[in-house]
Amino acid sequence: MAWDYKFISFGIIKIKGPKVLVYKDQFNYTTISVGVLVLKAEWAGGVLEITLHDGTVRRYWQEDKFITM
After folding, report:
1. Which residues, 6+ apart, have CB-to-CB distance to 16 below 8 Å?
2. Going edge to edge, which strands form the sheet with 19-23?
3. How far apart are CA 21 and CA 69, in angstroms?
4. pLDDT for 11-42, tens place per residue?
């Protein structure tokens, strides 16, 4: 299953070291534990792209499923 449209349309993403908080509304979010420091996280269509500190990019098409670019 792909990301719920509520996450994509709300659009708020916060980086907290090795974790990324993806908000669905003002009070609800899901946490992605990446395991290494995150440099950048942004929506690319319906996919969440997370750039790691070493330059590696992970594309999350679900909360727990990603591919490494």
Report:
1. none
2. 13-16, 19-23, 29-33
3. 21
4. 999 999 999 999 999 999 999 999 999 999 99
Can you tell me whether residue 68 is helix, strand or coil? strand
At 32, the amino acid letter reads: I
Q: Residue 21: helix, strand or coil by DSSP?
A: strand
Q: What is the pTM of this model?
A: 0.93
Q: Is 65 exposed, middle or buried (0-12, 13-18, 19+ CB in 10 A)?
A: exposed
User: Whole-angstrom Cα distance, residue 1 to residue 53?
Assistant: 28
